[in-house]
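TICKET #2291
ISSUE: user wants both folds in one file
ATTACHMENT 1:
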Amino acid sequence: MKWINFLHFYQPVNTDAHIIKEATEMSYKRVINALKKNPHIKFTININGSLLIRWKELNYFDLIKDVDELIKSGQIDLTGTACYHPLLPLIPEKEAKRQIKENEELLKKFFSNYKPRGFFLPEMAYSKSIAKLVKEMGYEWIILDEIAHTGELNKTDTEKIYEIKNIGLKVIYRSRKYSSSFVPNTIAKLLDSNEVIISATDGELYGLRHIDHAKEFEQLLENKGLITKTISSYIKENKELIETDPLDCSWESDEEELKIYRPYNLWDNPDNKIHKKLWDLAMLSYNTTQKFKNDDNYVWARWHMVRGFASCTFWWASDKDFSYIFGPHAWNPDEIERGVNEFIRSIRAIEDAASRYTKLKAEKLFIEIKQMIWEKHWTRWKN
């Protein structure tokens, strides 16, 4: 069998240092150390610029050097992405392009002027307009969840390589079933098969979310019969391309959501009143920073705004249980507030007196959101 494994390393740039350290020590370093010990193993990895910024602040220079060496040796195929992990289809294209460029600059800075060939859409949130942008910016391929191909699960041949109709961007589809498991355990059971397994998960699965007491991951990588490929090399050796026209979706979309066109339900659910207010404040923050580009505090206004746009701001308000994939219940008022605070600070930062009316409007929204969050939270515990 062949294992094409994609891992996503990401933490919000404004999260607490102990959270960065926990994920890094329990998961990210574990993966990198395992690759160092097994030079025949190759993975494709996304490391968001937001995490690189924090690694630098927290003095993870040896880890950064290790990643750089693994890229040079061909063991890591690093992808591009949007720096602060926004939902790209839900933000203005101008902002999407800027965050992609900022991430490129960080990759060049930390990893020997590296230019990736593949691109990771945060949350695998796909839209045709974003696919066009990614292609225009020079990327060759993206990875999507299998549901994007037909709108149904278990209907896509994930061993094949696809190309998006009228865009020319190549696509590899991950298997939802295998990616929802503790993947090393699944792969170990399939070693004698002839399958090609395409898995894609958050890097935190490997230690932080799932404690692997038996060290199944390390044992699997030591198996000399295990064949792994990076996505770029797998695409290169498979010349046949199948035309595809992916649906708008994310890597957690389900079939019913797509039937009623709710492709990004975890971050923009029409029935979620908190989501609606969050997006109102988010776009007010964006439009305000755009309007006052010449303001003395524009840099700081933007600094806060991009941090608010992180997908986590909206994901933690979705109130969905992710225990089935080793994740938490996605409801956390503190994490929602973290993003809300960034948006309001971006507007407060503008000094121009002409922003006064906008500030009052923003403060009202800010208070409404906080009240909604905490009323919902404490209502849960009233009994």
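ATTACHMENT 2:
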Amino acid sequence: MKPNDLYSYIRKNVVSPNWLSFILCYQPIIGLEAAAVYQFLWASYDHGAGKYPLSRILNHVNMGIPHLEQTLDVLGAMQLLAIYQKGDSYVFRLAEPLAKEDFLDNPLYQKLLAKKIGEPAVEELIVSKPVTDTEVTKSFSDVFSMTGDIPLKPFQNSSFDLQAFKTMMARDQLRFQNERDDVIALYHLAEKNGWDWTQTYTIAKETANGQVIRVNRMEQKVEVKPVVVTGLTKQEQAIVRESRAKTALEFLTLLKETRHATVTMSERKCLQQLVDLGLLDEVINVIVLYTFNKIDSANLQEAYALKLGNDFSYKQIRSAEQAVQHLRDSKGQGRKKQDAPAKKSNVPEWSKQEVKTERTEQGQAELAALYRELEAMETKGEG
């Protein structure tokens, strides 16, 4: 947008805003600047008679063009304004704010408002219904026929059914990490990806950790793109498949058992820290296996695993294939710096030990045994 671009109004679009609802419900969310722009557009409505430069708005509300673009986007996101563009000109269609009761009946809007003014303040706005009385209000189908000429008031809601979502959570004993923020994120993900509540719940359950829904992992799961990695050895293919088939704790437990050890509390904490980075279990599993193979020990070298996790999070590695490819590429770059050629081995190149200067025959045998066990598990699963 530029200050000299023209704007006009849609004709026959007279609105009568509910200013009580606008001030109490919308203004805390959209902010004073967006509220001022909406009020100015409403006050200067001319039934589509003329065209005006955007500088007219800028001068009245005293803001620059970047702020104006942002406020118009905010008004659009809250369904208070629709914007149509043709070349360098724009057409505005104002929409009325929802009534206070309808606004608060929308779970997404209610959570957004609570984030701004707090839950107690929102509770004060909610009209309490009689507890002991029986409601006898007729429904639409009770009053109107299929050819009724009185339109039903549109219900401002998406196909995301929060109540049904919570019912499934209770059945599976899942909980929110932060209900207020998580509900907003769930609505965003559902709308962005065209999900209904059942599709949203399926992804939420798959990416939950410790019975807690993790919306950042849901986003990672959605953004996973198919990656074709060529030249994987059988061992690497088994690692990818096993990484996908097990949770991070199950995978770590398997590796510890091969070393006749148990998972420690600090290792559990390390897994949780990797989860908090938003990494999926399949990526965490590759990190854990690589760390064990790099540092010959019965215990997970947590500092190194977290170092890898930070690197993977920064480089947006979202699948086991991407993790394997990244480690192989990194290994290949490291090999170029060495003068002597590497000794051939059945062990995948990316998982060879580097920290210790000498590899014991026992350590090599244990690593090969682990790969054989992974392959054997895969064979049983396919059978």
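RESOLUTION: both attachments delivered.
EXTRA DETAIL ON ATTACHMENT 2: Confidence is low (pLDDT under 50) at residues 152-157, 352-359.
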